[in-house]
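Dear Dr. L.,

I hope this message finds you well. Following up on our conversation about the binding site, I have prepared a predicted three-dimensional model of the protein together with adenosine monophosphate. For your records, I am including the exact sequence and ligand specification that went into the calculation, followed by the structure tokens. Please feel free to forward this to your student if that is useful.
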Amino acid sequence: MNRFLDFIRRHDRFAIVSHLDPDGDAVGSGLGLAWILRAAGKKADFLSYGIPRTYQWVPGVEEVKSDPDLLEAPPDGVFVVDATSPSRLGKMEKLLTPDLPVANIDHHPDNTRFGEVAWVDPSAAAAALMIWEMARELELPVGHDAATCLYVGLVTDTGRFTYSNTDARSIAAAADLIEGGADPHQIAGRVYENNSVEGLRLLGLVLSTLDLRDDGQVASLHVTRAMLEETGAMPEDADGFSTYARSIEGVKVGLFFRESEDGTIKVSFRSNQGVHIDGVAGRLGGGGHPSASGARVPGPMEAAKESVLRAVSEHLRSLAA
Ligand code: AMP
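The resulting structure of the complex is given below.
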């Protein structure tokens, strides 16, 4: 923690970046940290190439910079939050020039420990939780905007406090953030009860793709570009769909395949019953958490599905052997 304090003291203008295809924890931890650094008298900007519609209301979102060239002045320090490695930053990786010191705060077990200072805690339910703990430890003030952002990261990465990463530590942090001004009902309404009509129509199509394999232990769903066009939905409308396959009784591994604009397929792996799926995602070039991982594999959809389903099936057989 002292190294983080020193990192903050030694620099004045921070750029904050997170992983590409940002989720609630990427946005919430990035913007939450920006508020905390600003309250400590620093200049801080969160950069992201696009914020999903669900998070367009999060405090400070209107000031997010979509390109490093839009910064008022070059940063003298960078915080990377919730990202396993610089390559997970997508096009923002260009920000990490060799002369720019980097602080890395993440909860992915496969984090490469890059940066001048790195704090990696796979037992933390969210990067937002780590930022909250860092602020508390360093006695940095956390105002109600920061608390709201961090709560968004925490509630989304724990699946509304239901995933296996939900623990006393995350619930205690949530209570503190609520005391600090986060409104759980309002946030839940904005994140979970703000679906677009197109998004719900897309969900209808996606659910009809359900495919069960391995005696009902593996369930998969997919979304194609054609389905997006048919419903008028945005790709990010499918962000919450990855949990449906896992939600079926008896399913150990739920998979969600999305066809990207460039024809590659993004795969979300979700597992149940203590099955660790990050190794399979890792072998396919991705990574993540033991029960929630991702990878990007070559298309087309059917070929991608068959090869991933084969890898998952082999993994389950190896566990049973
Ligand atoms: P997702 O399925 O996109 O919600 O991602 C689940 C988890 O896996 C998150 O913690 C991601 O950061 C991680 N993840 C997703 N895609 C990749 C990838 N291509 N490489 C490494 N980690 C990934």
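In brief: The chain has a mean pLDDT of 97.

With kind regards,
A. P.
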